[in-house]
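dumping this here before i forget
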Amino acid sequence: MLKLKHKILVNQNLYNVFQALMKEKMSMNAAYKMKRYADKLDQKNKAHAQFMSELLKTYGDLDDEGNLQLEFEGEGENKKAVGYKLKDTEAFKTEMDQYLDSEFEVEVNPLFAAELTDVRISPNELIVLEPLIVTGK
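structure:
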């Protein structure tokens, strides 16, 4: 059982790193573990999207039809959406920060560094994966 904080899904883009690594050649055991991790993280990403949707419905500024209103920046052709209008930005931020700091558990077998010796990854990818990798065996 592995414990991670929700912020790893959002801030470090863990799922995207997994998708890139899924294209690399590795041992069957490591490939199976990576697939299990990716499946579990996909479930967590879906739960995160649901949480964000509910949070935005709670704190977002809705129009007469119940749709979230967008916040815009710029004028004319340079006008672009930069986010959602919020009724209570501080409450939204507080609840979001609490969520991102909370932990979730992933039921997977540990991924040992020795299983990934033939996998070529960048240092940035390693930084993202580090919480999931166990050194030694």
